[in-house]
Amino acid sequence: MKAVSIRQLSAIIILDNCGKRIAVKYYNDQFPPKGENKLVYKSSSSKDGISAPFENTYNNLRTVEDQKLFENDITEKARKLGGDSSETEVLVLNKFTILYLLINDVSIYIVGDESDNEIILHEVMQTVQQCLDNVTNNQIGKKQLLDKLDSIYLILDEIADSGIIMETNPNVIINRLYMHESDLQEHTPLNQAISSAKENIIRSLLSGT
């Protein structure tokens, strides 16, 4: 029996130009029916060097290992397809429809199932881009996003919950973000601890350790 899902998104993925993670959100609400064996990864080569489209190639993106394999493959395929850095492009991989946008040293991917509405995915992409423009003063880049990493995750949380799109109005999302940041400032010790932890993470990511 096929699992039923009301998800509108499978993932929102923000990577650097080397395919390393900046911020990712996966929405996995499908599980195999009771008694069904867990799907396993099967490797198969195709003519473009990307894994062949077996339904279980990425194990429904359930584990970090599956997700990173997927991220590596979409990075490679997007690189081969190229595209205008100012335009959203579309690629299909396995059972996923993926919209991607390359901005400076950042790649944004909006991932849906093959049956998902591409117009909805495009609307989500526009929302993500406009929100990132806002928090980086129109200077989207790896360093700028890492400096605002807590804000980036709050933005992604506002856009979707469990893969269901909750808000696509950038103004509403940014207003909620500022309200949240204002609340944090009322708790200075906690805010300082969060900032210190964030700086340590950023240093680790930038140093590659």
TrEMBL record:
Oligomeric complex that consists of at least the alpha, beta, beta', gamma, delta, epsilon and zeta subunits. The lineage of its organism: Eukaryota, Sar, Alveolata, Apicomplexa, Aconoidasida. PANTHER family: COATOMER SUBUNIT ZETA (PTHR11043:SF0), ZETA-COAT PROTEIN (PTHR11043). The keyword Protein transport applies. Pfam families: Clat_adaptor_s. The coatomer is a cytosolic protein complex that binds to dilysine motifs and reversibly associates with Golgi non-clathrin-coated vesicles, which further mediate biosynthetic protein transport from the ER, via the Golgi up to the trans Golgi network. Coatomer complex is required for budding from Golgi membranes, and is essential for the retrograde Golgi-to-ER transport of dilysine-tagged proteins. The zeta subunit may be involved in regulating the coat assembly and, hence, the rate of biosynthetic protein transport due to its association-dissociation properties with the coatomer complex. Its main location: cytoplasm. Belongs to the adaptor complexes small subunit family. It is a peripheral membrane protein. Residues 55-181 form the AP complex mu/sigma subunit domain. Keywords: Cytoplasm, Cytoplasmic vesicle, ER-Golgi transport, Golgi apparatus, Membrane, Protein transport, Transport. One of its GO terms (biological process) is retrograde vesicle-mediated transport, Golgi to endoplasmic reticulum. It is found in: Cytoplasm; Golgi apparatus membrane; Cytoplasmic vesicle, COPI-coated vesicle membrane. Gene3D superfamilies: 3.30.450.60. GO terms for cellular component: COPI vesicle coat; Golgi membrane. This is Coatomer subunit zeta.
